[in-house]
Amino acid sequence: MTLDDIRRRDWVATYPTREAALALVEWIKADDWETVSQLDRRLLGIGIEWAQSFNTAAERCFEVYGYPELEAVAVARRIAEMSVRPTAPRGRVAGGSDGLTGATAPTGLSARPEGPQTMTFGFTPRR
Questions:
Q1: Rounded to whole angstroms, how far apart are CA atoms 77 and 71?
Q2: Could you identify which of 54, 67, 85, 107 might form a hypothetical disulfide with 39, taking C-beta atoms 3.0 to 4.6 angstroms apart as the criterion?
Q3: How far apart are CA 25 and CA 58, in angstroms?
């Protein structure tokens, strides 16, 4: 067996199906995951046994099918967006005491500020 035969065999062994690639596209676009390890655990369910990493599978699917959502930069951007997204506060267990007092809303504040508001983001208007 030549080196080219070995490369071809390895390339064929990691050839994803179109359905698997489309599943990866759906996963990366979905809003139902918080960490990449959650995506890693789903790979076996769609028949990708040759990779334990979502990123590796996404790179291979991009290489084969060219879906722009699976390009390395797009995947990295989406993972970064998901990792910095604020999460919903966890609910308290009834009867539990964690030593923390619940936050209370200050009284007397209206929902809308009075008077015109300009959004300058820390910059002063030029005059």
A1: 10
A2: 54
A3: 8
